[in-house]
Design brief:
By secondary structure, the chain is of the alpha/beta class. The chain has twelve helices and 19 strands. It is globular and about 70 Å long. The mean pLDDT is 92.
């Protein structure tokens, strides 16, 4: 299977998901800030909703791959498994040598690789291991924290840790320590899995680099133009590095548009404020309709040239897409109560499975009706629990293959 992503809207052929697991039930009110959640989803219902999400894909002849399955396949190789376990433990912030050995022995006790991967994602509570008998103050103090290995509840948002661009992958450095371990899964899947063995996948960015960049800020508008958000989670230095690598490749991309968006929770990623739904249509958060600062990065005479312009979003998009007009479909219809409520529930975060055909959350009924009025076909999925993680259908999916448009 070759990675092939040259747009946001080309007919989707293959997609990568993670079905929420017991890691969700390791959230507590005291830990929500640390683990980047505003609420605690009810796992049983979240899984039902996620299964409905996956069914939209299978009903439309889109192959669904699960991160936990692909990782488990990779771990069939004992040498790779050892490397993976050692790296995962090294990045789990375990301070105690005793605990480190306990965790290593525990992970090696799994005969089923998929169950091992699921447990790594779930985390390890202190209560699961025997009490440490030690004179080491550090070990005793650590016992006050409820986890030996933190859970990874954000992983059902597979968009962020690694982003497919063209025939390659941006293996991202996440903005928070809490999420950075998620990128290990992508590192091993795209490097070692048999599905990708016929393609030496280039990495446009690497998780070892010091600057943060996340998949929610990376949008492929067409095979010439990328849009990347300078946001709460993505630093401009990372965009510079990605541009150098991408422009030095044989990919057809000619321009990267760096959108400078507000650095706040409501504008966490670029795809929380606008997503592409058709050749000339975008959903948007009404709060970004004013003039935006956009930096265009292009390569000329072997050097990257950066130009800044300030203009309305629709004018910028039409210019770089080479079309006469772009239609902006406002989340909630206009600024106000509906827009604020539905933006909080990711009304602007849609996933196109074909031009003019998108997946949306049921709870964003005002925005959904407006999309239909603009001729967009919608696939509505239940969303009472999935939405509590503050991410929509685009956030929950990593396309692997799309048809070229």
């Amino acid at each position: 299977m070759d990675i092939n992503i040259f747009s946001e809207i080309g007919r989707l052929k293959r997609v990568l998901l993670h079905r929420p697991g017991p890691e969700i039930e390791n959230l507590t009110p005291e830990l929500m800030d640390r683990l980047l959640f505003d609420d605690i989803p009810f796992l049983d219902v979240a899984r039902e909703e996620h299964d409905a999400f996956a069914k939209v894909f299978t009903d439309n002849d889109i192959e669904v791959y699960y991160l936990e399955d692909l990782t488990a396949d990779v771990l069939e190789n004992e040498k790779i498994k050892e490397e993976f376990i050692n790296q995962f433990i090294a990045e789990s912030s375990i301070k105690s040598e005793i605990r480190t050995m306990q965790v290593k022995d525990f992970y090696y006790s799994f005969d089923d690789n998929k169950k091992l991967v699921e447990k790594m994602i779930t985390g390890i509570r202190v209560e699961e291991f025997p009490t440490i008998n030690t004179d080491n103050l550090r070990d005793l103090v650590m016992n006050d924290y409820p986890f030996i290995v933190d859970p990874m509840p954000n992983l059902y948002f597979t968009r962020d840790p690694f982003a497919t661009i063209g025939n390659g992958v941006s293996l991202n450095h996440m903005a928070t320590v809490t999420r950075n371990r998620e990128t290990i899964f992508g590192q091993y899947i795209f490097k070692y899995h048999k599905e990708f063995k016929n393609q030496e996948i280039p990495f446009w960015y690497n998780r070892d680099l010091p600057f943060s960049i996340e998949g929610g800020d990376q949008l492929i508008l067409n095979d010439k133009v990328l849009a990347i958000g300078i946001s709460q989670r993505t630093q401009p230095d990372a965009i510079d590095i990605l541009a150098e690598k991408l422009f030095a490749s044989d990919m057809p991309f000619e321009t990267i548009l760096a959108f400078d968006i507000p650095k706040s929770r409501a504008f966490m990623h670029l795809d929380t404020v606008f997503t592409m739904v058709d050749y000339d249509k975008f959903t948007i958060h009404p709060e970004i309709e004013g003039p935006l600062s956009v930096y265009s990065l292009t390569k000329k005479d072997g050097k990257i040239v950066i130009e800044k312009e300030i203009n309305e979003l629709d004018i910028i998009l039409a210019k770089y897409l080479g079309i006469e007009k772009v239609t902006l479909i406002r989340c909630g219809g206009k600024r106000g109560i509906d827009a604020g409520r539905e933006q909080w529930n990711d009304g602007s975060n849609t996933l196109a499975i074909a031009p003019g055909e998108v997946i949306v959350y049921s709870r964003n009924h005002v925005t959904n009706k407006i999309l239909q009025e603009h001729g967009v076909k919608i696939h509505v999925i239940p969303s009472s629990e999935l939405s509590r993680g503050r991410g929509g259908p685009r956030c929950m999916s990593m396309p692997l293959q799309r048809e070229r448009i």
